[in-house]
Amino acid sequence: GGGTAGCILASRLSKKYSVLLLEAGGDPPPVQNVPALNYITKDSPDINFLYRTQAEKNAGREFEGRIPISTGKMLGGSSSSGGMIWERGHPNDYNLWASLTRDDSWKYEKIVKYFNKIESMVGQTKPRRIGNNTMRSRARPLRDTYAPGIKYWLKAGKELGFDV
């Protein structure tokens, strides 16, 4: 698919091979360019597969136990949804995959270098530590930055005693 991982993989493969990248959806609608407005289109089958979790007795009661999972069905995938979310999986997940597949190349300490190839933080911030790894500010394909006005949220957090 034409989501974050698919586009990066296709780009890397295209350096050596001819690659066709297929995406189930089309172009993101213009509203998806506005940060945090993904709630407007979150239930649109044109840009979301509308998957839900298996029913859980004690979770997601407002959804009858089947919690919606936002999955971008458009070029850019979920990264085009405007939700402003990027998250690495927990190191234990990768280590479990390594154990289950008997393939140490899935271990977190082996793949963290690939996260470092694509992540960066733009702007003034404290370096973030994840395990033994620190995100560094360098130009890479995935760029985090602060939205305009975030300084007011940070100021409010400081005034409330949070370490920001």
Mean pLDDT over the residues: 82
Question: What is the CA–CA distance across the termini?
Answer: 37 Å
Class per helix and strand makeup = alpha+beta
**In angstroms, what is the radius of gyration?**
19 Å
How many DSSP H or I helices? 4
Tertiary shape: globular
Keywords: FAD, Flavoprotein
InterPro entries: GMC_OxRdtase, GMC_OxRdtase_N
Protein name: Glucose-methanol-choline oxidoreductase N-terminal domain-containing protein
Cofactor: FAD
Descriptive labels:
164 residues, alpha+beta, 2 domains, two-stranded antiparallel sheet, two-stranded parallel ribbon, 4 helices, globular
Verbal overview:
Residues 2-163 form the Glucose-methanol-choline oxidoreductase N-terminal domain. It comes from Allacma fusca. Its cofactor is FAD. With 164 residues, this protein is of the alpha+beta class. It has 2 domains: 1-85, no CATH class; 89-164, no CATH class. 26% of the residues lie in helices and 9% in strands. It has helices at 4-13, 91-101, 108-118, 150-159, and strands at residues 51-52, 68-69, 119-121, 129-130, 133-134, 142-144. It has a two-stranded antiparallel ribbon with strand order 1-2. A two-stranded parallel ribbon has the order 3-6. β4 and β5 form a beta hairpin. The longest helix is centred in the middle third of the chain and has 11 residues, at 91-101.
